[in-house]
Input
Amino acid sequence: MSRFLLATWDGGGTIPPELGLAAELVARGHEVVVVCDDTVERETAEAGATFTPWRRAPQARARDRERALIRDWEVKNPLRQVRQVGDLLFFGPASLHAADMADAIDRHSPDVLII
Output
């Protein structure tokens, strides 16, 4: 049995395939911890994995219109949308994601990272 640490975010259609992978790994006897937005906690449990939220890094929460980090419906210019995603989710908070991942690695001692 191996320990997997899967880091993802709630947006862009990432959750169904990644939690499908987590469920398959669990079914094969592996331990899986998912670091993600709080909107994915229930689905993570349904996949048989352990959930850990982003603590410092921003929560994307793409499926929660009221709490969504990226509000692309408010930005009509495609280039500004790309910049918004980079600034708010990927590049701007990169050090926060790295700190959360370092904590999760220390806590769970994974054999494999899936990012």
Summary: The CA atoms of residues 30 and 88 lie 33 Å apart.
